[in-house]
Amino acid sequence: MKREDKIAFVRVKLLEGWTDIDIRKAIGVPKRTYFRWKKRMQQDYVALVKKQKPGPKTRFHIDPIDSRRLQVWRKKYGWGPTKMEGHLDVHYKTHIPHNKIHRLFVKKG
Questions:
Q1: How far apart are CA 2 and CA 26, in angstroms?
Q2: How far, in Å, CA of 84 to CA of 105, rounded?
Q3: Which of 11, 41, 54, 64 has the fewest C-beta atoms under 10 angstroms from its C-beta?
């Protein structure tokens, strides 16, 4: 039985007057899951049934000017990604996470 079918079953059986224990035994879901479903049914049944997976993450692109600036700092001062992240935040009011800066260095060699 699919998740949506189980949720619909719970809703119907609650309207018919079944007890919580009987419904849980009939569909075989844990107590915690059942009561979470029941609580969500009281709030918004449609959102409970149509559960969506998160979409793809957006890609992060570094501005070419910032990219060149970071490469110059790396060569000139020997700074690491964390130092550069802080320097950009303080002096240029631009935030680029240090993970992205590191990934840029790995990509550029």
A1: 14
A2: 12
A3: 54
What does each of the 109 residues of the chain score in pLDDT, given as a tens digit? 787 788 888 888 888 888 899 999 998 989 998 888 888 887 776 666 666 777 787 777 788 888 899 999 999 999 999 999 999 999 988 888 999 999 889 988 7
Task: Tell me how far apart the alpha carbons of residues 81 and 42 are, in angstroms, rounded to a whole number.
Answer: 49
User: CA–CA separation, 5 vs 26, rounded Å?
Assistant: 13
Give one DSSP letter per residue of 33-58, joined into a string.
HHHHHHHHHHH-HHHHHS-----PPP
Torsion over CA of 34, 35, 37 and 40, rounded to 10 degrees?
180
What distance in Å separates the CA atoms of residue 49 and residue 41, rounded to the nearest whole number?
9
Distance (Å, rounded) from C-alpha 29 to C-alpha 19? 14
